[in-house]
Design goal:
Layout (H helix, E strand, L loop, with lengths): L1 H25 L4 H4 L1 H15 L14 H24 L4 H23 L13 H30 L5 H6 L2 H21 L2 H18 L8 H28 L6 H40 L5 H13 L3 H6 L6 H37 L4 E3 L5 E3 L1
Helix pairs in contact: 1-8, 1-10, 4-5, 4-11, 6-9, 6-10, 6-11, 6-14, 8-9, 8-10, 9-10, 9-14, 10-11, 11-12, 11-14
């Protein structure tokens, strides 16, 4: 059942760029938001008709409002700071204040959860090493794939000139890899526990990301597709074991908390992936542009303007359109080359993060976890 859940979740996520491309080219990007309304309505009806409700008659209706507020503000402040930092500068008082607020709210949340009678998150959950390993792997793979898919689709459109449909469709190899890896990861989880398929899966995903870390303006589509397939295969190997461990191998009284924290790690990883890798790509693009611009023959004033547009614009075309016509040709070359190098460098950083997560999971996650008759988890 968990394998089916993960197949649907990752299948939808990896197929999203292709579907979004058709919607964007056909109806316009705003329809990506409007389409959620009928989809949500249909889902609500299907769930109400097919899913039996379960309730704990002894559960309290208490809501940990202070815990909810502090963690919510921390999660809001961090991506916002990472998104705006490249545009306004990391030393800008607003960015410094947002980053400081992230730390303050996160610490406040932890202190509240330690002292409140009915916490939003029972901190005993983080005393289970296997769960910590699973959450680390889940956050990492969501961060890597969300950032990868966002940047790569942008690059395919802005540098290679593909339409939204074509760029989205080129992400399909990742979907194929996910669906191939999920049953293999599930079978390994059943036979050997979650640790082996998760560590192997993260390493496989790192190999696929490494192929994408060498992107340039002339990289063959076949190389990109192969890299995406390998990334998807790694994610597929990881997906079922992390869900099964994070949700299914905790004491019964922590099951609800575990499910919520697991889903939170997915959402947080995805949002951080887009924010962090986009900010990183912008910074690296601007740095790579410095060397290219010095040899471009542009005046100092034009170079300053190009650097500003590369940092403040989400697309090369947007940057080019703001420049004088007589320098646009050279700027196109500079923008495409710099953006390609920036995206490749961002992929390289993602490789390092994924490999670090592999090492953390290897040492944090016990070799085997077994549920004891009392409902507690025994780690060996």
């Amino acid at each position: 059942m968990i394998g089916i859940w993960q197949a649907v979740a990752w299948g939808g996520l990896s197929a999203g760029p292709a579907i979004s491309g058709f919607v964007t080219d056909g109806l316009g990007w705003r329809w990506l938001f409007w389409l959620n309304l009928p989809l949500a309505a249909v889902t609500l009806v299907v769930v109400r008709l097919t899913t039996p409700e379960s309730r704990d008659p002894d559960a309290s209706g208490h809501i940990d409002w202070p815990g909810l507020a502090t963690i919510g503000l921390a999660v809001l402040a961090l991506p916002y700071a990472l998104t705006e930092g490249p545009s306004v500068g990391w030393a800008d008082p607003r960015i410094v204040a947002l980053l400081a607020a992230t730390v303050v709210f996160a610490v406040a949340w932890y202190l509240i959860e330690r002292r409140v009678r009915l916490p939003l998150v029972d901190l005993r959950l983080f005393g289970i090493r296997a769960c910590n390993g699973a959450l680390t792997a889940n956050l990492t793979m969501n961060l890597a794939y969300a950032g990868l898919s966002f940047l790569l689709v942008l690059w395919l459109q802005n540098v290679r000139g593909y339409s939204a449909v074509e760029a989205g469709s080129l992400m399909i190899p990742a979907t194929a890899g996910v669906f191939l890896g999920i049953p293999v990861g599930g079978a390994l989880d059943t036979r050997r526990g979650g640790r082996p398929p998760v560590t192997v899966g993260l390493a496989v995903a790192s190999a696929g990301l490494t192929a994408l870390a060498f992107l340039d303006t002339g990289t063959p589509v076949e190389v990109i597709a192969t890299g995406l397939f390998v990334v998807g295969l790694g994610l597929g190997l990881v997906s079922t074991p992390v869900a099964n461990t994070a949700v299914g191998e905790v004491p019964a009284d922590l099951a609800g908390t575990a499910a919520g924290v697991f889903k939170m790690s997915s959402m947080l990883g995805g949002s951080l992936g887009v924010a962090v890798l986009t900010a990183l790509a912008r910074e690296l693009t601007a740095r790579e542009a410095s060397g290219v611009l010095d040899d471009s023959g542009l005046t100092d004033a034009e170079i300053i303007r190009v650097r500003q547009t590369l940092v403040n614009s989400d697309s090369c075309q947007e940057a080019v359109d703001t420049l004088p016509p007589d320098v646009r040709g050279e700027v196109v070359r500079v923008a495409e080359e710099s953006f390609s190098l920036g995206v490749a460098d961002a992929m390289g950083v993602t490789v390092v993060l994924t490999l670090l997560a592999t090492v953390v999971v290897f040492f944090v996650w016990p070799r085997r976890t077994r549920r004891a008759p009392s409902g507690n988890v025994r780690e060996v």
